[in-house]
Amino acid sequence: QVQLVESGGGLVQAGGSLRLSCAASGRTVSNYAMGWFRQAPGKEREFVSAINWNGISTNFASSMKGRFTISRDNTKNTVYLQMNSLKPEDTAAYYCAARLGLFLRVGVNEYEYWGQGTQVTVSS
Questions:
Q1: H or E stretch at 98
Q2: Mind listing the pLDDT tens digit for each residue in 67-93?
Q3: 38 pairs with which residues across the strands?
């Protein structure tokens, strides 16, 4: 079993930045692809970003490209999401996810383990 705990959410003004962290425990996630998803009230959970096992390959939803950066430190069993130029529409609960395998995926149903989420609120 893999346990994931997100942190770093909060309230920020539009144009500001936040760095989310996802700490994994229970197993090393060095051979897991990791993803970030978000869910706003009344909306479905959507893909934000993903990273493969060694951090070489990354993917972003189109609306996040150029603003968000994903990275991982396998020595710390942690994945990060750096969010810059935040917009009010980025307001959501952000979830970290893990899937056993070397290659990243973008589908919600392709991830086995999920964290509890961290709230990001961007004020206008």
A1: strand 92-100
A2: 999 999 999 999 999 999 999 999 999
A3: 46, 94
